[in-house]
Design brief:
The chain is α/β, with parallel strands linked by helices and about 375 residues long. Helix content is about 30%, strand content about 15%. Strand 5, helix 4 and strand 6 form a beta-alpha-beta unit. Helix 3 runs parallel beside helix 4. The radius of gyration is 40 Å and the shape is elongated. The termini are far apart. Pfam families: Glyco_transf_7C, Glyco_transf_7N. Its cofactor is Mn(2+).
């Protein structure tokens, strides 16, 4: 009897345990499917959002897109439990596919451009018009600007021309120089510094004005100063700056294609911005013809620099023949001024420049900067 009652008791206990296990199994299944359904719903939203519904944070400054995903890969993780942990959203490592690839940087321009011709035939017999020059140079932009499309030049060059009443000469100069400078792969702009009025001409002061005004137009670091009647006869005479101030026009036809004297620095020259400021620019007090280029040469040597020049066979120039301009007579004081460069160069130059800007006008082939620069002081009475 006792054994029978014990057997029934054990049977009831086993049935109870089995019932508890079944109940536990049912509860686990309910919880599992509840979690699974939430994860499935959340992932389906993310999958549908790859084209616009996923969380998108755009940078206000850069405009880039960053996509973030909830980390629900942990066991029994739900969206509510994830948010309750206070974890930060982690950016996805997915690559951005809507960013436009940046263009490859241009290579440096070659020191010896491959398209140069060498010796050129320069003549002034045919009639020249601005319309013809413009047709010949379609890649030159307004203001006489040009940048090589296929390489990166070392220098940004402002070509500065002191000017008054030389419109015919300017046509020939633009006709020859634009193609030369483009073949040389120069990043350049052409600036005509036009002295208004009929007072005595002052070449060096106009060049100082050109330096000042061109820097308002672009960040030039090289300055070529050229007379409008001088045309290079060889495109290997490269119009950029060098380690030392450069004298380009060393062999003009009017001098028998020879350098007239060792200290000559006239016609066409070039200085970097650093070199120009080191000599305080050019003198402002040389009114009339002559002397200012010798003063500039003195400034260069007195400041510990040397003049560099091309080979005489390359630095050849033709000059457009013309009569001497009115109000540009030889300066009788030039020889005395040249002897005093050491005493005057710190107080007479770019630091003391005064002028009045009247107009800046951009033409298809050049920029015209018209200025008033005053008049010379009264000359001391003789005797």
């Amino acid at each position: 009897m006792t054994r029978l009652m014990l057997g029934r008791t054990l049977e009831r206990i086993c049935k109870g345990v089995l019932l508890l296990c079944l109940l536990h199994f049912l509860i686990m299944m309910i919880l599992y499917f509840d979690v699974y359904s939430q994860r499935f719903d959340l992932f389906s939203r993310f999958n549908n959002g790859r084209n616009g519904s996923r969380t998108n944070v755009s940078g206000a400054a850069g405009g880039g897109h960053h996509y973030y995903y909830y980390n629900l890969s942990r066991p029994n993780a739900t969206l509510a439990s994830y948010l309750a942990t206070g974890e930060q959203l982690v950016p996805s490592a997915q690559p951005e596919t809507d960013r436009t690839p940046s263009p490859k940087p241009l290579p440096p321009c070659p020191e010896s451009p491959p398209g140069l011709v060498g010796r050129l035939l320069i003549e002034f017999g045919s009639q020249m018009t601005m319309e013809r020059v413009q047709r010949e140079n379609p890649n030159v932009t307004d203001g006489g600007r040009y940048t090589p499309p296929d390489c990166r030049p070392r220098w940004k060059v402002a070509v500065i021309i002191p000017f008054r009443h030389r419109e015919n000469h300017l046509k020939y100069w633009l006709h020859y120089l634009h193609p030369i400078l483009r073949r040389q792969r120069i990043d350049y702009g052409i600036y005509i510094i036009n002295q208004l009025g009929e007072e005595t001409f002052n070449r060096a002061k106009l060049l100082n004005v050109g330096y000042t005004e061109t820097l308002k137009d672009a960040e030039y670091d090289c300055f070529i100063f050229s007379d409008v009647d001088l045309i290079p006869m060889d495109d290997r005479n490269l119009y950029h700056c060098y380690d030392q101030p450069r004298h380009f026009a060393i062999a003009m036809d009017k001098f028998g294609f020879r350098l007239p004297y060792a200290g000559y620095f006239g016609g066409v020259s070039g200085l970097s911005k650093k070199q120009f400021l080191k000599i305080n620019g050019f003198p402002n007090e040389y009114w009339g013809w002559g002397g200012e280029d010798d003063d500039i040469y003195n400034r260069i040597t007195l400041n510990g620099m040397k003049v560099s020049r091309p080979d005489v066979r390359i630095g050849r120039y033709r000059m457009i023949k013309h009569e001497r301009d009115k109000h540009n007579e030889p300066n009788p004081q030039r020889f005395n001024k040249i002897q005093n460069t050491k005493n005057t160069m710190r107080k007479d130059g770019i630091s003391s420049l005064t002028y009045r800007l009247v107009q800046v006008k951009r033409y298809p082939l050049y920029t015209d900067i018209s200025v008033e620069i005053g008049k010379p002081p009264p000359r001391p009475a003789k005797g």
